[in-house]
Design goal:
- There is one protein chain.
- The chain is an alpha+beta fold.
- Among the domains are: about 90-155 and about 275-280, no CATH class; about 160-265, no CATH class.
- The chain is built from 10 helices and 12 strands.
- The chain has helices spanning about 20-45, 65-75, 90-100, 160-175, 175-185, 185-205, 220-230, 230-235, 255-260, 265-280; strands at about 10, 20, 55-60, 85-90, 105, 110-115, 120-130, 135-140, 145-155, 210-215, 245-250, 250-255.
- The strands form 5 sheets. Strands 7-8-9 form a 3-stranded antiparallel β-sheet.
- α1 packs across α2 (about 65-75), α4 (about 160-175) crosses α5 and α5 (about 175-185) packs across α7 (about 220-230).
- The longest helix is centred in the N-terminal third of the chain and has 23 residues, at about 20-45.
- The radius of gyration is 23 Å and the shape is globular.
- The chain starts with 9 loop residues before the first strand and ends with a helix.
- The relative contact order is 0.09.
Length: about 280
């Protein structure tokens, strides 16, 4: 989508309603501005206004110049002035941030401080976000600056692929008609299901072996049974997921292996991209 952003572009929400993309981005930025200013007001006695702050808006490194300009216009619509606004690439912002902290990482069995990297040191920055993945290679120029030595690469295989894998499993489990009906008629429960998945998604680890428990809305099972005239528990017991999915009251339990499989495609794409960058 971000290869052809313009002021007239529309995007659809989860229910298929079309909205002007520029307005959506502007509202999101405005919310963040207002939230930040509330926190500042609560903690600082002197009066600080929006115009007193220099705002930095970060964007993925793989975005086009047109997409970056689009975000600048959205920020202006949200109430920022161009004189107090900088559009920064996410990997560069992350590098500078890390160099100003005592962040330790293990390299070849030892501990080094990113903040103490010497001039000439080269390192890869992997920015794994919800939508895009940015892979860049930087070189330390001086204590306070870095330069990009390989053009940014990556693509739209961040957390969104994990979400798609989970949604595909739900559709495979109950059928698209039942899933879409549940989403449309029991929207609050549908949102609760996805909020719980987001929490569990962030907590998973490669070492996890115990089952992953999630809240499962009873309305989901009821929707399935009303449409198919089949008990959901019976349907699962006869499916390929019989060993990996269990129900207990309003809880659904996934085997650790099945839950980790939601990450497989995203991990594969990221691993391959990193290998390509390293070989350049």
């Amino acid at each position: 989508m971000f290869q052809k952003l313009d002021r007239e572009l529309t995007i659809k929400d989860e229910m298929g309603k079309s909205l002007i993309a520029l307005n959506v981005c502007a509202m999101a930025i405005k919310y963040l501005i207002e939230d930040m200013m509330r926190n500042v007001t609560d903690r600082v006695t002197s009066c600080i206004e929006i115009k007193d702050v220099h705002w930095v808006l970060t964007v993925p490194a793989i975005w086009t110049d047109a997409a970056k300009q689009f975000m600048r216009e959205a920020a202006v619509e949200a109430g920022l002035s161009t004189g107090n606004l900088t559009i920064a690439l996410e990997p560069e912002a992350a590098s500078i941030f890390c160099r100003h902290l005592s962040v330790d990482t293990a390299v070849c069995g030892g501990d080094i401080s990113i903040a103490k990297m010497l001039a000439g040191t080269k390192y890869m920055v992997l920015g794994a976000g919800g939508g895009t993945i940015d892979i860049t290679v930087h070189e330390v120029v001086s204590e306070n600056s870095v330069k990009e030595i390989q053009a940014a690469s990556g693509g739209g295989w961040g957390g969104i692929l994990v979400d798609e894998a989970f949604e595909n499993l739900l559709i495979d489990l109950v059928g698209k008609k039942a899933y879409d009906t549940f989403k449309r008629t029991e929207t609050e429960d549908w949102l609760d299901l996805w909020r719980d998945f987001e929490v569990k998604k962030r907590a998973i680890s490669p070492e996890k072996s115990a089952r992953v428990n999630m809240k499962f809305p009873l309305s989901f099972g009821n929707t399935f049974e009303n449409i198919t005239k089949t008990n959901l528990l019976d349907a699962i017991e006869c499916s390929k997921y019989s060993e990996d999915i269990q129900f207990c009251g309003d809880k659904i339990k996934f085997s650790a292996s099945l839950f980790k499989n939601f990450f497989e495609l995203s991990v594969q794409k990221n691993s391959r991209s990193c290998e390509v960058v390293v070989k350049r």
